């Protein structure tokens, strides 16, 4: 179980952002996270992935703190994956930097092996997001924090990605925290929702 307990965080001493936020995501469960712009969704996502350390409170998996170094079992997937890829690397190298993806995950996400020879700017937004998800689904990945991953995509690309992701989450027991501004999307993918205020 991924758990955040009584998280407090602020970037400026006089402006508290997250105040006593707690949540949990079970293996294979999809939980929605919503909240107004600026309410701290991305900050919470980065705390859960271990990119940031909370001022107070704890993030744990099965009661143990996140590892300080090495592979991150909670993977953060941003809205704009191209910003998290080396523009000089071909897709094959971008993927291998994390792990050698298995063919089942590759075909579930529809990542064509021919793309491995292309550079990130030579793929569409939806194709790149599928590559980013494949990269994040390493063997050690237990949870995904999906931060507006399909907000910039058309409905067909959005449906394709979520259908594949929900299947992989079920098959591999990967818990997902799905951040979105779209209530209709959260209704479809998540059984439970948390609202940041
Ligand atoms: N690294 C940082 N340094 C200083 N302030 C930050 C930093 N990251 C975020 N903030 C501030 O924290 C607040 C919350 O930002 P955050 O991105 O977590 O919100 P959000 O709910 O994800 O917003 P949106 O829905 O617009 O993406 C904002 O006021 C933002 O300016």
TrEMBL record:
Protein name: Peptide/nickel transport system ATP-binding protein/Fe3+-transporting ATPase
Species this chain originates from: Aureimonas jatrophae
Keyword Membrane: no
InterPro entries per UniProt: AAA+_ATPase, ABC_transp_ATP-bind, ABC_transporter-like_ATP-bd, ABC_transporter-like_CS, P-loop_NTPase
GO terms for biological process, alphabetical: transmembrane transport
UniProt entry keywords in alphabetical sequence: ATP-binding, Nucleotide-binding, Transport
Residue stretches in coiled coil: none
Protein family: Belongs to the ABC transporter superfamily.
Domain ABC transporter: 2-197
Keyword Transport in record: yes
MF GO annotations: ATP binding; ATP hydrolysis activity
Stored Pfam families: ABC_tran
């Amino acid at each position: 179980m991924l758990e955040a307990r009584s998280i407090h965080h602020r970037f400026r001493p006089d402006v508290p952002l997250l105040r006593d936020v707690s949540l949990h995501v079970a293996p294979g469960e999809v939980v929605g996270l919503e909240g107004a712009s600026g309410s701290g969704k991305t900050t919470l996502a980065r705390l859960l992935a271990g990119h940031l350390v909370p001022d107070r409170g704890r993030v744990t998996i099965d009661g143990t703190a996140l590892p300080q170094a090495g592979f991150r079992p909670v993977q953060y997937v941003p809205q704009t994956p191209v910003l998290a890829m080396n523009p000089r690397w071909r897709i094959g190298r971008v993927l291998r930097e994390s792990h050698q993806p298995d063919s089942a995950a590759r075909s579930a996400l529809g990542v064509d092996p021919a793309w491995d020879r292309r550079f990130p700017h030579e793929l569409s937004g939806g194709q790149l997001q599928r590559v980013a998800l494949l990269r994040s689904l390493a063997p050690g990945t237990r949870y995904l924090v999906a931060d507006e991953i399909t907000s910039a995509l058309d409905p067909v690309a959005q449906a394709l990605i979520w259908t594949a992701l929900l299947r992989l989450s079920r098959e591999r027991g990967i818990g997902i925290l799905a951040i979105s501004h779209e209530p209709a999307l959260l209704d479809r993918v998540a059984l439970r929702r948390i609202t940041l205020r």
